[in-house]
Amino acid sequence: MNPISSPLLTDHYQLTMLQSYLEQNMQETAVFEFFVRKLPRERNFLVAAGLEQALDFLENLRFSPEELAWLAPRFGSSLIEYLEQFRFDGDVHAIPEGTIFFPDEPILRITAALPQAQLIESRVMNLLHFETLIATKAARSVLAAPGKLLVDFGMRRAHGAEAALLAARASYLAGFSGSATVMAGALYGIPLFGTMAHSYIQAHRDEAVAFEHFARCHPDNVVLLIDTFDTEAGAAKVVSLGRKLGVQGISIKGVRLDSGDLGAHARKVRHILNKGGLENTTIFASGNLDEYRLRELLSSGAPIDGFGVGTALDVSSDAPSLDCAYKLQEYAGKARRKRSEGKATWPGKKQVYRKYNGPGGCMAGDIVALEENDLHDGEPLMARVMRAGKRINQGVTLDEMRMRTLASYDRLPRFMTSLDHAPGYPVEISAALSALANQLDAEQAQVVSV
Amino acid sequence: MNPISSPLLTDHYQLTMLQSYLEQNMQETAVFEFFVRKLPRERNFLVAAGLEQALDFLENLRFSPEELAWLAPRFGSSLIEYLEQFRFDGDVHAIPEGTIFFPDEPILRITAALPQAQLIESRVMNLLHFETLIATKAARSVLAAPGKLLVDFGMRRAHGAEAALLAARASYLAGFSGSATVMAGALYGIPLFGTMAHSYIQAHRDEAVAFEHFARCHPDNVVLLIDTFDTEAGAAKVVSLGRKLGVQGISIKGVRLDSGDLGAHARKVRHILNKGGLENTTIFASGNLDEYRLRELLSSGAPIDGFGVGTALDVSSDAPSLDCAYKLQEYAGKARRKRSEGKATWPGKKQVYRKYNGPGGCMAGDIVALEENDLHDGEPLMARVMRAGKRINQGVTLDEMRMRTLASYDRLPRFMTSLDHAPGYPVEISAALSALANQLDAEQAQVVSV
């Protein structure tokens, strides 16, 4: 059993429901949509991510003999027989990864036999939720620090290994320059960054010796961590080393600051480096950073060229979850609506249309409409990405998605690019969709009164 | 390459440092310790967890030919040759999983050749940090809802698959009754819970029909979700169904509420059920719950028998990370100290002694001391758990750890069992440890002045 691709990555109730669906032969086509209910207060928009991993999961879903053997004593034989043959052979529609979106806008739709669409709920949500959470968080650092080198440093405090890997991917998609997590480089081809830890300096005891050893070992990528004992004293040692090594053709690419008042240290260190002839040596900062600290440092004019953003990025510290849902919108050709208090859904198969202020202009508003017989102006965001369980290969690489995402920030209305709360992007529900919701409520009232 | 057990689950700088260590033959014994720097404001204590997963990782760490082939063009051949033979053959000391602990107290110590101890940093931190985070969060719900059934419902919004699995394990360790995540049952033997989703009701349209179908399919575990349309109307249908099925020997074990004012609904539903003769049918609640909501509901006297705690548990919503570190405390027989501003460490190999108010009494205070020649009264918490890369099997099951953890809550001082901020548990640094830190600072000043 592979803990991250097993079909047992599901909630127990999916299996008890499946038993009941099979018993009643409820295997007609169901339509489920994934959407976010509302924005965290600290977010002005969302960035869709995780589709590729969700499609991988669907395409490869199989129950192994070992998994079936584990399930057998716990569930009836009819379920086990069904799961032996289980393949996901449904359709998937989605908006592309890296697309900006808003609450009530579906970013993924599953159209499949009810038991299939039900079983996959937990893991599909788990993937889309997390990568969207992180891409959305990362976009804020990208907007707060335009033109700066941004590196994901979050593995050690990410929530497990998969979170570290998916956070590296999602932040790169959203515009980060790369990650420190080696496996993310191997899995996704993301550029890797990293130099040395405090332990490296401590193991040498003499910081100057540690710097020189490192520089001679990595002459093409000399980035030195200078805060282990005293940041400015560290910078002075870098200058001495720079003189010594410069003669031998080794240049010091950068220094890293990781503690104290990063802005004040950066200014002093920049001065020390410049005075020592190291004008081209860059300053990289890390240590409890997030987009708010980046904005603060840059608006105070701190001479910092790049940032390692770690924990706050990988756990989305100020909003560690999104209020998202995966809901049945249609079954057996009939639209469905959940009416629970505060959690009512928009029924039916939907499309999202986005309007712009002219060609190349800013986003001007979205309409959530029914997919059929409810056409609107604007760019339709949802498209089919899987047919009968097979991915429709669109051949878009992660780097291409990243460039497209970065370009899309230019089309955000100015007021939404701020880190501050800025409500007001218009998302309209189409008249036809509202009418359908009302009609279903009226029908349900009849069911209840019967 | 297995994304959750690969040795490439490390930060890039670990590999660049390794190259340099090898070049300088810096392979003497290093001692690193993992500890938390400070408590989040919302926590009064921490619960250690994740050791078993960390030891698994260490014991099985191997570079596969595929991994080496990926690394080869990126790193020098001497590193690749070293990694081909790589095994972790160090010692590990730790405090047992489920133990309550505090900042500055190491919960794990690695004693190994410097390159080994360095390479494993990122993943060992990643595992210990997350499980400790979740066990600590879960303990609060257990304390807030004594005697209630508590179930982890968090998979869908956990940060990836591994987070969902480790959160199920850590919350069970901390006293939860089980999880909804099937794979957590298969991997760790955790009891599984779950009934039906709203989609099940919606697919049927007629809620009463859905209830009856489910009950007949699962006569031994009839728990019905009653809030899809109208909670009290749902409860009335449960009563009708209870009459009908009671005759046939099927009893309705419970109902689940998932929206609206859970306390008010629970009172009304309890009344409806009791009036209908279903006094033994339990009420289970879910929906945006955390320990604060549990306390509120129970202190208002809401007649709720169990809770599904989801997102808030699995992401530790009010404190989604811990300020933890893994630091070099000794190298080549000499204690080391990091002096960075606000991040100075206590050097050397340490032990933690815990005092109690008499046998069976409450915890009375801890002393962080040096392991050697610094004995104190109290229970020593650190013990060796791995020798030369092989686990010392202590044969303690997860269920036994869970029982021990539950018992340890009884020894918490009363003021610390509250959900509110309650500083003041005494953790003392021994005189010998303070003296060592001062001595190292003096020595370092000499290195700097040279």
TrEMBL record, chains A, B:
<comment type="function">
    <text>Catalyzes the first step in the biosynthesis of NAD from nicotinic acid, the ATP-dependent synthesis of beta-nicotinate D-ribonucleotide from nicotinate and 5-phospho-D-ribose 1-phosphate.</text>
</comment>
<dbReference type="InterPro" id="IPR013785">
    <property type="entry name" value="Aldolase_TIM"/>
</dbReference>
<comment type="similarity">
    <text>Belongs to the NAPRTase family.</text>
</comment>
<keyword id="KW-0597">Phosphoprotein</keyword>
<keyword id="KW-0328">Glycosyltransferase</keyword>
<keyword id="KW-0808">Transferase</keyword>
<dbReference type="GO" id="GO:0004516">
    <property type="term" value="F:nicotinate phosphoribosyltransferase activity"/>
</dbReference>
<dbReference type="InterPro" id="IPR040727">
    <property type="entry name" value="NAPRTase_N"/>
</dbReference>
<dbReference type="Pfam" id="PF04095">
    <property type="entry name" value="NAPRTase"/>
</dbReference>
<dbReference type="Pfam" id="PF17767">
    <property type="entry name" value="NAPRTase_N"/>
</dbReference>
<protein>
    <recommendedName>
        <fullName>Nicotinate phosphoribosyltransferase</fullName>
        <ecNumber>6.3.4.21</ecNumber>
    </recommendedName>
</protein>
<dbReference type="GO" id="GO:0034355">
    <property type="term" value="P:NAD+ biosynthetic process via the salvage pathway"/>
</dbReference>
<dbReference type="GO" id="GO:0005829">
    <property type="term" value="C:cytosol"/>
</dbReference>
<dbReference type="InterPro" id="IPR036068">
    <property type="entry name" value="Nicotinate_pribotase-like_C"/>
</dbReference>
<feature type="domain" description="Nicotinate phosphoribosyltransferase N-terminal">
    <location>
        <begin position="8"/>
        <end position="128"/>
    </location>
</feature>
<dbReference type="GO" id="GO:0016757">
    <property type="term" value="F:glycosyltransferase activity"/>
</dbReference>
<dbReference type="InterPro" id="IPR007229">
    <property type="entry name" value="Nic_PRibTrfase-Fam"/>
</dbReference>
<dbReference type="InterPro" id="IPR041525">
    <property type="entry name" value="N/Namide_PRibTrfase"/>
</dbReference>
<keyword id="KW-0662">Pyridine nucleotide biosynthesis</keyword>
<keyword id="KW-0436">Ligase</keyword>
<dbReference type="InterPro" id="IPR006405">
    <property type="entry name" value="Nic_PRibTrfase_pncB"/>
</dbReference>
<comment type="pathway">
    <text>Cofactor biosynthesis; NAD(+) biosynthesis; nicotinate D-ribonucleotide from nicotinate: step 1/1.</text>
</comment>
<feature type="domain" description="Nicotinate/nicotinamide phosphoribosyltransferase">
    <location>
        <begin position="150"/>
        <end position="330"/>
    </location>
</feature>
